[in-house]
Amino acid sequence: MATVHPWTEEVGGAVTAHPLGSCRLGDDPATSALTPDHVLRGHPDLFVTDASAVPAALTVNPSLTIAALAERASEAILARLAALGVTPRREIPPPG
């Protein structure tokens, strides 16, 4: 019998050196743990922006995709802060 890897139900399915998708982003609550705004369903103050949010294995290194998703999520995070009455600092301090 062939080995089934823990990150797929298909024998010989997607294999990646970068485990992704354990907390998937998507529209359908039945197949995704996160809303399209990166909010964990049922937990409105918890945002997930790491590799676990990537819905499926990629054929390339996922670092730029993860960075783009995190930047995309920043608008939703800022909107949630505003709804809570928190004014975030918008400047980025220099390193060191």
From TrEMBL:
InterPro entries: FAD/NAD-bd_sf (IPR036188), GMC_OxRtase_C (IPR007867), P2Ox-like (IPR051473)
Cofactor requirement: FAD
SUPFAM superfamilies: FAD/NAD(P)-binding domain
Alphabetical UniProt keywords: FAD, Flavoprotein, Oxidoreductase
Domain Glucose-methanol-choline oxidoreductase C-terminal: 16-70
Family listed: Belongs to the GMC oxidoreductase family.
Protein name: GMC family oxidoreductase
